[in-house]
Amino acid sequence: MNYDIEKEYYNRGYKLICGIDEAGRGPLCGPVYAAAVILPVDCEIEGINDSKKISEKKREALFDVVKEKALAYSVAMASAKEIDKINILQATFLAMRRAVDGLDVKPDLALIDGNQKPGLDIDENTIVKGDAKCISVAAASILAKVTRDRYMRELDEKYPQFCFAKHKGYGTKLHYEMIDRYGICEEHRRTFLKKLFGESNG
User: Fold this and answer.
1) 20 to 30 Å CA-CA from 99: which of 8, 17, 63, 90?
2) CB-based contact 39:108 (threshold 8 Å)
3) Model's pTM, two decimal places?
């Protein structure tokens, strides 16, 4: 993966470009995370790709490389309670805005994975499957994914009965079995489980 997409925008006059991606929109439990990453011009990171396409071990290694090479980076989240309150899409946008706000320097353009804009106070452009096309977005996908996975491993220690370290909160057979056995914890997204528990949990 190369820097071609970012170069196109630099040639249009932009000075600092950040890539943005999220992790954790689909799980039944835990926050949704977003990362914003500004890489130097012509940055190369060997092996970088969409975080879902590489192994956990490789993601962990690239996590440190991205942080080392980035001009600036920020990772932020929206909690399960916020997801329940404003819905997952708006919570994802909130996490993205928080990530951009957390950057040490302010970019003048954001390239966002997907097809919807989060409503930043800078120029923003979406790229469908951007985490497989754009190195800045791929870098952001790795920071967001690794940070979220680490958080879910911490939750596993707090709630070992749910086996969060294995499924990271996704709706696997094991996860549903544990919910059937133990109910839900405060980190579960109740709006994602209405069908299971009825509206009283919503």
Assistant:
1) 8
2) no
3) 0.94
